[in-house]
Amino acid sequence: MRLFFTRHPEAWEGGKLKQAVYEFMGEDIKSATYNIRRNYLTQFFNWCVREGIFPGKPACRIQEEKR
After folding, report:
1. Nearest Cα to 54, choosing from 17, 1, 7?
2. Burial (0-12, 13-18, 19+ Cβ within 10 Å), 37
3. Which of 4, 7, 28, 54 is 20 to 30 A from 44 (CA-CA)?
4. CA 41 to CA 13: how far, in whole Å?
């Protein structure tokens, strides 16, 4: 999560979170790295939704990459 928010500090600003997630996940990385990032983001945003920080999960539609 530190890497995500270091690269996209503006993600907390209204309306920019989903775009930041897609940019972060759209980088040219290996499948294993992609899936690790996806899992971290999914778990973090699930927690944010449970805590009432976000109304919905921006990473929920990102599919796992297959090798």
Report:
1. 17
2. buried
3. 28
4. 17
Parts of the chain with a pLDDT under 70 = 56-67
| Termini Cα distance of the chain | 24
Hey, where are the domains in the chain?
Answer: 2-50
The residue to which tokens 């897609």 are assigned: 22
What pTM was computed for the model?
A: 0.77
User: What residue spans of the chain are helical by DSSP H?
Assistant: 2-7, 17-25, 31-50
Residue 59's Cβ-count burial label (10 Å; 0-12, 13-18, 19+) is buried
Q: Which two tokens stand for residue 24?
A: 């972060």
Phi, psi of 66 (to 5 degrees): -100, 150
